[in-house]
Design brief:
The protein has 708 residues and is of the alpha+beta class. Helix content is 46%, strand content 19%. It has five domains: 186 residues, no CATH class; 135 residues, Chitinase A, domain 3 (Roll); 105 residues; 86 residues, Roll (Chitinase A, domain 3); 97 residues, Chitinase A, domain 3 (Roll). The strands form six sheets. It has a four-stranded antiparallel β-sheet with strand order 17-3-19-18. It has a four-stranded antiparallel β-sheet with strand order 13-5-15-14.
């Protein structure tokens, strides 16, 4: 069954399955609060895509199915909330694609027949992911027989339901990919690049120019030199409304009451570590004692002097600590520690080793691999050629080609079981060990210089906030919340108490706020509250417990999706109008200078500025070095004749006057080749842009934030 393991670990090559789930009990409990009417269809609606209502039970079921596949893929039994959030997003995007493109595929008659699927799974045109899954580990080649055997087992029920579901999902992904590919090819075949288009793009890059220029930045015009009326602002706003489109958002202001250990908590931790010191010193089993009592488990590592903290290195190597001596207690950040010298030996600082790796993915393979490993070990000890055995048996092809040789390495460079075997071996000794990569037959071929190395057992007591500390901090937050139930009172109290007020702008589906843990509940509250109101938890409390912070927040601004009102974007409009007005002033100044001077140096002198240069610019250039994005300037210089001085150009950063000093005609490109290049570019963009066009043509209403 090694094949199924490969399916799990490699299926991600086809599509990224990122999936998530919510707590159904919480959601249903929230819905039940509104009585029986809450079960109406619209109250369970997660969203609407092109008129199709997506109901919570249906969507959640799909999310959970994908979640199970994800767990199999990564061999885990649990997904954290961040991964579930990604999963829900992927499930939503797949739902959009399914509904938006489903009718399109149907109308165009695009489908994948059973014969095509057979061909991709075991026929003449095997899908790449199937080729990777069913690859012979010895030859590296695709093994068609493995596919056939697996599919026969699938038909006869010789595989688990879990693996059956997994394989069927993979088949569906292959079908979806082929369907999308057919559509993309169809769209791509309908695109054509004309000869004129190819000639235009070649011409755009055929001439490269060097030019001199003077620039008059907008900042050289003072605000007093221009006049901006309310009509100017309205006219500009009306003409550029597309620049002021905004997404839905909420702006909150909040204060935090951090829960951090008090002086009493530090004193309690210090007392605990002092009280246990004698027991730690007397124990005969340092490892068990640490694992039973310390907040940090024993670390089975050997360390040289340079690897140790300075105080511990001094105690051991300078002060002559003996095995089972105890150092401390001593503070280390938010912990108190005791250090006990557990072991001290002269050991090699590095080793040279080689290995043979046998891969194990099932219990049956484990038994067979163990037997083979014991056999290979015996053969090596009797004088067999290790290098040849490695080339014949090791799945680590990177080292097998060198006879299994891994070269020299120090501690910390290999997985722990392998490292221990290599460093504990005598020169030439062979050991069999198991790691997460499989079974290793390890032979240490050389030992490095012997150096003193030690193992230290650390007994650690973390300083944490006690229940009393939590209660004290909560009482302060509760007092503030109880006395300040409006935005006005909230702001006044913050000013009076000289508290730090923080601000966050959050989208409806945001899950994080910088500096706060598990902030999703605060975001959801912001979208359920009225503007200028104090936010509340689902239990009606104004105090949110987010990680080690108690948070009190107020909703200060509601921004809906669409064109922002003029008043909301007035500063941006004023800045844009100011640039236009200042550009007009600068253009007139430049015109006056041009009227009395025939060369750029004289114009620069009249305008009290300097002449600068730019080189190797053509029509396709993205920007001008040292200047930035100036498409108007680039368009002008590539159309001017040599030594021709331009009229003033209103650019992004100011007003420019330019003169081309030289030009170079590049070799003419091949029109047919350029047509082919442009066609390939169009084909590459076809699928994504075609889908986006279909998506933009339908209405999509996302209500997931009400449930997750």
């Amino acid at each position: 069954m090694a094949t199924l393991q490969k399916i799990r670990t490699r299926a991600g090559l086809l599509v990224a399955i990122v999936i998530g789930v919510s707590l159904a009990a919480f959601i249903l409990g929230d819905l039940l609060q509104g009585g029986s009417s809450m079960f109406q269809r619209n109250r369970l609606e997660v969203g609407e895509i092109d008129g199709t209502s997506i109901q919570y039970p249906e969507f959640q079921s799909e999310v959970e199915e994908l979640g199970e596949i994800f767990k199999q893929n990564y061999q885990t039994s649990q997904l954290d909330e961040n991964m579930w959030a990604q999963v829900r997003e992927q499930a939503w995007q797949q739902k959009i694609a399914e509904i938006v493109m489903g009718e399109t595929y149907k109308d165009l008659g695009i489908n994948v027949t059973s014969e095509e699927l057979f061909d991709m799974l075991q026929g003449s045109n095997i899908h790449p992911i199937v080729q990777q899954i069913f690859r012979n580990p010895e030859t590296g080649q695709f093994d068609r027989g493995s596919v056939v055997r697996f599919l026969k087992n699938l038909e006869t029920g010789a595989v688990t339901q879990e693996n059956r579901d997994y394989w069927l999902t993979l088949e569906n992904q292959i079908v979806d990919e082929r369907t999308q590919s057919k559509y993309a090819n169809m769209v791509g075949k309908g695109l054509y690049v004309t000869t004129q288009e190819a000639e235009n793009t070649l011409q755009a890059s055929s001439k490269t120019v060097n030019f001199d220029y003077i620039s008059l930045p907008h900042s050289t015009v003072s605000d007093d030199e221009i006049s901006i009326t309310e009509k100017d602002l309205k006219d500009y706003y009306n003409a550029h409304q597309e620049d002021y489109e905004q997404e839905q958002s909420r702006r909150i202001e909040y204060i935090t009451y951090p829960v951090s250990p008090s002086a009493d908590d530090y004193a309690d931790a210090e007392k605990w570590i002092n009280d246990i010191k004698s027991d730690f010193a007397e124990t005969d089993d340092n490892v068990q004692f640490v694992n039973a009592n310390s907040d940090v488990a024993f670390e089975n590592v050997w360390e040289k002097r340079d690897d140790l903290p300075e105080n511990i290195a001094t105690w051991i190597f300078d002060e002559g600590a003996q095995v089972n001596d105890v150092f401390g207690p001593y503070p280390d950040g938010e912990t108190f520690k005791l250090a006990k010298l557990h072991k001290s030996e002269m050991m090699p600082d590095s080793v040279e080793a080689r290995h043979i790796l046998l891969q194990v993915t099932t219990q049956a393979e484990l038994l067979a691999a163990q037997a083979l490993a014991d056999s290979l070990k015996t053969m090596i000890e009797k004088g067999a050629d290790f290098a040849q055995l490695a080339r014949d048996n090791s799945v680590d092809q990177g080292s097998a080609i060198n006879g299994g040789d891994l070269g020299w390495f120090q501690r910390g460079q290999m997985v722990k079981p392998f490292e221990d075997a290599a460093f504990n071996n005598k020169k030439g000794e062979v050991t069999v060990v198991t790691s997460q990569f499989g079974i290793h037959i390890v032979q240490t071929t050389q030992l490095g210089k012997l150096t003193p190395q030690v193992q230290v057992a650390y007994l650690v007591r973390n300083v944490i906030a006690s229940t009393k500390t939590y209660q004290n901090v909560y009482a302060k937050a509760s007092e503030f919340a109880g006395n300040n139930t409006s935005r006005e009172a909230f702001d006044a109290a913050i000013a009076e108490q000289k508290l730090t007020k923080r601000v966050a702008n959050v989208g409806e589906n945001d899950r994080q706020i910088v500096g706060l843990e598990n902030a999703r509940q605060l975001v959801r509250s912001a979208y359920e509250a009225e503007e200028n109101s104090i936010l509340q938890t689902t239990q009606g409390s104004p105090i949110f417990e987010l990680g080690d912070n108690f948070v009190i927040a107020v909703l200060v601004q509601v921004t809906e999706k669409g064109i922002a009102p003029l008043e909301d974007v007035k500063p941006r409009v004023e800045l844009a109008v100011s640039k236009e007005k200042k550009a007009e002033v600068l253009v007139e100044k430049a015109k006056a200078a041009l009227s009395g001077n025939s060369d750029l140096a004289s114009v620069a002198a009249a305008l009290d500025t300097e002449v600068k240069s730019a080189n190797s610019i053509n029509f396709n250039s993205f920007s001008i070095p040292g200047v930035g994005l100036e498409p108007a300037v680039i368009g002008t210089v590539t159309s001017l004749n040599v030594d021709q001085i331009s009229a003033p150009i209103a650019g992004n950063n100011g007003v420019f006057v330019v003169v081309v000093t030289s030009e170079t005609q590049n070799p003419a490109g091949d029109i047919a080749a350029e047509q082919n290049r442009l066609a390939q570019t169009l084909n590459y963009r076809a699928a994504q842009q075609a889908f986006q066009a279909h998506r933009d043509a339908v209405e999509i209403v996302d209500k997931r934030s009400k449930f997750y």
